[in-house]
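Exercise 3.2. Students should predict the tertiary structure of the chain below and write it as structure tokens, then compare their answer with the key that follows.

Predict this chain's 3D structure.
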Amino acid sequence: MTWSQPRRDHDDGFVYLTGPCGYDTVEAGCRPVVSFSIELASVRDLRIRTWTITRTGPKGHWQTAERTIIAEGRHWTVGLTPMTGDTVALMLWSGNDVAAHLRGPEPDVVRTAYWWATNLLNGRPWTAPQPGHAR
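Answer key:
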């Protein structure tokens, strides 16, 4: 069995997918997996309890998305802000200092933000490369 394509539920705004829950064996039941990757294409896909997303206006367009992490003995904040067109700004703060900043298309920047947060949460430097991506 393979993972399904992500499906957005327009009622709750979450993204769902289905697939195998364990090791590829013929044994009955589910086994825990160590990790899995989800391809994120927009800030809306980050709408989980760990990201704070602020919205404005009658249509609820997103204004900021932030994730706060305590790692490496420091307080980190990963922040996203829309710019003009489909450009999004990404910033990483370590305490009050800006550790990194970049701009780009929303899908690329959201994947980078998610990866920086994942690295910090897993005890890796935020700069560790994404699997399959050259530095």
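Discussion points: The first strand starts at residue 7 and ends at 8. Residues 28-36 have pLDDT under 50 and may be disordered.
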